[in-house]
Automatic annotation (TrEMBL):
Keywords: Signal
Superkingdom of the source species: Bacteria
Span of the signal peptide: 1-22
Record-given protein name: TonB-dependent Receptor Plug Domain
Length: 861
């Protein structure tokens, strides 16, 4: 904050009809300026971060790689962050399970990585990639980066990317950790009074949004009527289902009537408050100033109010205004000092209560442009492609800054309207799905500015809580910016979990695969008064970690709980986000979920035959031989099934997969103790399991029936001894567990004497237990010892570029032809790249994005 004199200066300039100073007035001024000072200090001492990911493609297929580059910047000016050195990037399947994770080292505000869509079991659908620093979690889960990517089933014909088959969201047996998307009525109407509330007898501007059941915008008209069905106002959509109208509310009940496709729909108007203030902001009339209008009604006492304007968590302007009378109080504020993007106007009283809140958007022509020039218009299959890229500023001056680049096969490409510009300046600072955000950056004319201002009125949520900044709402700084691979934990007593201060922790780190060598790292530290400890490492890859507790040189049987379960809950999808638009066809299909529609699941022919064979046996056992038609001897030629193919088939048809050592670690870090009990492990991993007892023996049930436990794909006989073999396995020996509910799979591994009907009646699923080889089973942890792992920075793969000047041509179905997370141009802003075409590409699709070290955004045009 510059000084309190600046506040007083604004008071002298902007106060209207100010009363003579007195003790009461001085007290109000002190309170208001206190909130302003606190707001400015918060932005200085609690800076924030943003993350954006640039992906190599707009959609993916099973088995594809997802390549991405990460830009980690400060929220205020979009400069490369100097805070966090560690970024977490997670891949979540449609059900909300984290199926892969990358821990990346942030250098100069950037890092890059990849995922492979090879997880079994695989479910097509909308996958979520999210990215965050641990420090960002202090500001709520809405602060993290999240992007939905459509992932399709592998084409039945290799390379035929016109096939875009996908399991509809909500179908399939896979676990669903996400909340179900909310479906509205056929026509939905929402009102957004400017500033937040309607106040009786004060004219207001009211924005509105009309959508269908899935949140898609509708074109419609309507009118407001009173109790006598007299028309008070009318309205019409101007852009993307939105519009606004002028309206003066009173205490009577009024309704809105929407006319859509020849049918009328009625909605209640929001009831106005009997007292209060309104705020109107004119951001369109002037290029250099923002006109503010404040007004109260007769029932509202006169009051001195404070107003601040903040952008991305930084205070840029503020003033005090004394609203004495019922006429509007108007004044102008300089907006040239505001940066590009979303700014927030907050009107508050001396109690720190927010009275009005309004978002505005400032559009400045300060961005870089990336252009390309190819050596020729079209290229033959497997031909070398040469391209020149140039980076310039708004004045066409060359800029030497690195950028991430993707060149794709443009045929059958899924359209994407998001880029680094729309995300950094718009989508990341408001809540909700923004349909076609690129539209608002196409031009800076009156039509686009009006549509953008309307969007600000409708989607008026913001990331930055003024109440926390002003100190009227508590803010807890739980996580500090990480400076490396950090591990935090606590030592507690074994039974009561009482913190153990001043005990010694010995840590051993051994690089996986190098256990026979000497310890790679060793350290000793002491817990604090609450039993906490922490250490930092700069390592790459996954390491085995052994932690041991001792007091005065003697090992102690205490529990070690590690603080690494900070990952956010999976977000709820919105139906408008689950859309697929093919760029060259311009046909859109929304992701609908009709309850009556169930996708057809086709079993492999060999599994159907196995099932029918087993079923035939069951008919024979039931004395129904006459129903079985026997053919003469036939010779059948077929490829012999391999064990590897069986295992792959079993995994791919499973509904759930668990890495047991990781799951066991997570359970321990939740403060739970399961000992060596496999039943407790199963119950904690999957809530469909329940304990049951028979003749004093403990068993598990899964969805009301017995699960069939199968160890290393060996069939389980229907004997008590064979069935209970899984209870004898040490948890340390179990590598992974798959759960499969397919009847044909259950029949394959159940006692062959059982008919399919008996199998279906008795078992609910197969629990496949895969164990480590005998010589790879970890040893048990000793007294006071925790054997676990430490996730270091992820290994970064290099994008594969085939060289057809050396390699012979072969079927090449690459969809991403070239990916480079860091292309560096020369001092003239130019960079040359070369890659080889695939088998069939005739149209290139290019995506290039950057942010300079000082926060200037650049996109491909």
């Amino acid at each position: 904050m510059k000084t309190l004199r600046k506040v007083i200066g604004y008071i002298s300039l902007l106060l209207f009809c100010l009363q003579a100073p007195g003790q009461e007035t001085d007290s109000v001024i002190n309170k208001l300026t206190h909130y302003i000072r606190a707001t400015d200090q918060f932005s200085q001492y609690i800076p924030r971060e943003k993350v954006y990911l640039h992906f190599d493609n707009t959609s993916y297929y099973q088995g594809d790689n997802i390549w991405f580059n990460c830009y980690v910047v400060t929220s205020e000016l979009h400069e490369a962050t100097g805070l966090s050195k560690t970024l977490y990037v997670e891949l979540l399947n449609p059900g909300g399970e984290i199926i892969d994770k990358r821990v990346l080292k942030v250098e100069n505000g950037q890092c890059h990585g990849d995922f492979t869509l090879g997880q079994l079991p695989f479910y097509s659908g909308f996958y979520e990639v999210r990215a965050y620093t641990k420090y960002m979690l202090n500001f709520g889960e809405d602060a993290i980066f999240s992007r939905l990517l459509p992932v399709f089933n592998k084409p039945k014909t290799e390379g035929n990317y016109e096939e875009k088959d996908m399991l509809k969201y909500g179908y399939g047996k896979y676990p669903k950790k996400r909340e179900k998307p909310q479906k509205g009525k056929k026509v939905n109407l929402k009102f957004y009074p400017e500033g937040g509330n309607l106040i009786e007898n004060i004219p207001s501007r009211v924005a509105f949004e009309i959508t269908d059941a899935f949140g898609n915008p509708l074109e419609a008209t309507g009118k407001i009527i009173n109790q006598d069905k007299e028309e008070i106002a009318d309205f019409a959509v101007t852009h993307d289902g939105r519009g606004f109208f002028n309206y003066t509310p009173n205490a009577g009940k009024r309704k809105a009537v929407v006319d859509y496709n020849g049918k009328k729909y009625q909605f209640d108007m929001p009831q106005p408050l009997p007292q209060g203030f309104t705020l109107q902001a004119d951001n369109l009339s002037s290029s250099d100033s923002l006109e503010i209008s404040l007004q109260k009604n007769e029932q509202t006492p006169a009051e001195m109010l404070g107003m601040v304007i903040i952008c991305r968590g930084k205070l840029y302007n503020y003033c005090l205004a004394n609203v004495l009378h019922n006429e509007p109080v108007r004044f102008k504020v300089d907006k040239t000092i505001l940066p590009s993007g979303v700014s927030q106007i907050v009107l508050f009283n001396s109690n720190g209560d927010i009275l009005c809140d309004r978002l505005i958007f400032i559009h400045k022509e300060e961005q870089l442009t990336i252009r390309s020039k190819a050596g020729k218009e079209t290229y033959e299959p497997y031909e070398a492609v040469d391209m020149e890229f140039t980076v310039t500023d708004q004045n066409e001056n060359p800029v030497q800054t690195s950028f991430s680049l993707s060149v794709r096969d443009g045929m059958n490409e899924v359209k994407s309207d998001c880029n680094i510009l729309t995300d950094m300046l718009l989508a990341s600072d408001i809540k909700g799905y923004v349909h076609n955000p690129s539209y608002y950056f196409e031009a800076n004319d009156s039509v686009h500015r009006s549509s953008l201002d309307l969007l600000m009125m409708v989607q008026g949520w913001h990331r930055y809580s003024w109440k926390q900044m002003a100190g009227t709402e508590p803010f807890e700084l739980k996580y500090t910016p990480e400076q490396g691979i950090e591990m935090h934990g606590q030592v507690v007593s074994f039974v009561r979990k009482k913190p153990k201060p001043n005990v010694t922790i010995s840590s051993f780190l051994l690089k996986r695969g190098e256990e026979e060598e000497a310890a790679s790292a060793f350290d000793i530290f002491t817990t604090d008064s609450l039993g906490h400890f922490a250490f930092r490492a700069d390592i790459t890859g996954k390491w085995n970690m052994i932690l041991a507790v001792s007091e005065k040189g003697k090992k102690k049987d205490h529990r070690i709980i590690l603080d690494r379960l900070f990952t956010p809950e999976p977000k709820r999808y919105r139906y408008p986000e689950m859309q697929v638009t093919v760029a060259d066809q311009e046909t859109e299909k929304a992701e609908e979920t009709d309850a009556e529609e169930v996708p057809e699941i086709q079993e492999p022919e060999e599994d159907i035959n196995a099932f029918l064979t087993a079923y035939e046996d069951s008919l024979a056992k039931a004395g129904n031989k006459e129903k079985v038609l026997r053919l003469d001897e036939v010779t059948v030629t077929a490829k012999k099934r391999s064990r590897e193919k069986d295992i792959f088939n079993n995994r791919s048809k499973s509904i759930a997969f668990y890495d047991v050592q990781s799951e066991w670690d997570d359970i321990t870090d939740q403060g739970k103790y399961i000992g060596k009990d496999i039943h407790e492990l199963m119950i904690n991993m999957n809530n469909n399991f329940r304990k049951t007892f028979s003749r004093q023996d403990e068993y598990l049930q899964y969805k009301g029936k017995m699960p069939l436990f199968v160890i290393n794909y060996e069939p389980t006989m229907a004997t008590e001894m064979d069935y209970n073999k899984y209870k004898l396995i040490r948890l340390e020996a179990i590598k992974s567990i798959y759960i499969n509910e397919e009847l044909s799979i259950m029949c394959k591994y159940a006692d062959p004497r059982m008919s399919p009907l008996e199998v279906d009646d008795f078992y609910s699923c197969v629990v496949f237990i895969e164990t480590f080889p005998e010589d790879k089973i970890p040893t048990d942890a000793g007294k006071g010892v925790r054997k676990t792992w430490l996730e270091g920075y992820s290994q970064v793969k290099e994008f594969y570029n085939p060289d057809y000047s050396i390699l012979p041509p072969e079927p090449d179905y690459r969809r991403t032809l070239y990916w480079n997370p860091s292309v560096t141009p020369d001092e003239k802003g130019k960079a040359d790249i070369r890659f080889y075409n695939n088998s069939s590409c005739k149209k290139f699709s290019i995506s290039a994005e950057t942010i300079t070290a000082d926060g200037i955004i650049g996109i491909y045009k």
